């Protein structure tokens, strides 16, 4: 089998018994049944996207192109002879097979997953037979995706060349996986904040973050920009120092010296100024703040660091806005005694 063979990964839809549907029937299948027979659509991504928009007019605009792409690839890019991998969550096995059939629309067989292809399953192996990097790649959030970085490892498994247990150099592999998880998490937080916490919404979140850090925060109501969005303090009444005046910018553009100096102009003696931005700061703004002991600039990356550090103290509203789950990974820095 050529190393140029296309390798696909696929996940069953939630609630689907993949063991019965995939393994016993010898197929792979995906949903979106309301769209109908996908072979009736013009063979273009634009046509699939338009069909999704017609069928699901209330769906999130950002999700539709991704879902349309999944359907298009299942029908027009996947080919007979391609390798397909299905990681089963039910029994923690990795199923590897060959695509044997063209696209079929069969709602009479499975109404929720009518879009299918015939597959001949060749190998079923435990997850421990694969490197952590390979397992991470087939853990993609997409229903259908192309496996590229670790395709050769799965092709070797298909050929029966898998050792009983793969002893990884996990220091490097797990480090790469951890980095990918961290980057994905940070991208998710940035996208959530820039989409759902613009303007006053971000100021309210920063106020809550300050409260999680041990301050009391008074967030100004929505309205004209008065230069100070939050006043934070330690005591109940806000009389005792330090008093912190906070300006929040939800834009990802660099904040200039004019905005920073405007905030500082409202900071009285014995008070502190804090500028929080989803973007960064110009060199002039950084230079202005450099010699001010009572002025602090926080950019988007540092804001995310603080959110992650204090996330456990967030209330249910903000945990619902930024849904995260604690994940445990092997500690490669710990030596056995």
From TrEMBL:
Report the GO molecular function annotations. DNA binding; restriction endodeoxyribonuclease activity
Q: Where is the Restriction endonuclease type IV Mrr domain?
A: 198-307
The Gene Ontology CC terms held by the record are: bacterial nucleoid
List the InterPro entries hit by this protein, alphabetically.
Restrct_endonuc-II-like, Restrct_endonuc_IV_Mrr, tRNA_endonuc-like_dom_sf, Type_IV_Methyl-Rstrct_Enzyme, UCP031853
In Gene Ontology terms, what is a biological process of this protein? DNA restriction-modification system
Signal peptide extent: none
Q: Which PANTHER family does this one have? A: MRR RESTRICTION SYSTEM PROTEIN, TYPE IV METHYL-DIRECTED RESTRICTION ENZYME ECOKMRR
* Protein name, per record: Restriction system protein
